[in-house]
Amino acid sequence: MEALGRLFNAVPVASGNPLRVRSASGVAILAWNATATTTTTLTLTQDSTFGGSFSGGLFGIKNVYTTTALNGTAAWAKQTYNPGTAPWTGASANNVNGPANVITFNNTSQNFATAVAVMVHIFTSEFADPFDYIKATVTGAGGLCIALPYDLVHQRGPANMEILGA
């Protein structure tokens, strides 16, 4: 069996779209800026229904991975939240009080200044009940994101996988 449906599912255009992710152990959100020069913000929210307000922040982020190249020519750097010390090795103004739901990157006034892409992992076991849906929203000209639910609870062929955006 191929990876799609066995290891992961994929939502190629995830920004601004509610996604049900309880059928996976976690979801990776990869956000980037195609222009590589524009300030970009990734905001993660959660709700209990597809049509919800998504006003609740998603606070399960412990690590942010950043890279300075979109073409695979630079390694990923891990920024880890460490309770009791500065929250991030590179912390944006939105992250100074611990794991937050807003990550700003590619901005000279923030500490993720040189990052053109970020990846976060959210474990579905960390969702507060009854939340089943997340929304990743990227703002900034050229900003995009993809969602990759992984470690699927039920393995199926791609045509029979759960539709996440419903």
Per-chain topology:
Blueprint: E1 19-20, E2 24-33, E3 40-47, E4 56-57, E5 63-67, E6 77-80, E7 102-105, E8 117-123, E9 133-139, E10 143-152
Antiparallel strand pairs: 1-9, 2-8, 2-10, 3-4, 3-7, 3-9, 5-6, 5-8
Commentary on this structure:
The structure is a single chain. The chain is mainly beta and 166 residues long. It has one domain. 0% of the residues lie in helices and 36% in strands. It contains no helices and ten strands. The protein has strands at residues 19-20, 24-33, 40-47, 56-57, 63-67, 77-80, 102-105, 117-123, 133-139, 143-152. The strands form two sheets. Strands 1, 3, 4, 7 and 9 form a five-stranded antiparallel β-sheet that branches. Strands 6-5-8-2-10 form a five-stranded antiparallel β-sheet, with no helix packed on it. Strand 3 (40-47) and strand 4 form a beta hairpin. The radius of gyration is 16 Å and the shape is globular. The two termini are 26 Å apart.
Mean pLDDT: 81
Low-confidence stretches: 83-99
First-to-last CA distance:
26 Å
Helix content: under 10%
List the helices and strands in order. Answer: EEEEEEEEEE
What number of domains? 1
Shape: globular
DSSP, total strands: 10
Structural class: mainly beta
Range of strand content? 35-45%
What is the alpha-carbon Rg in Å?
16 Å
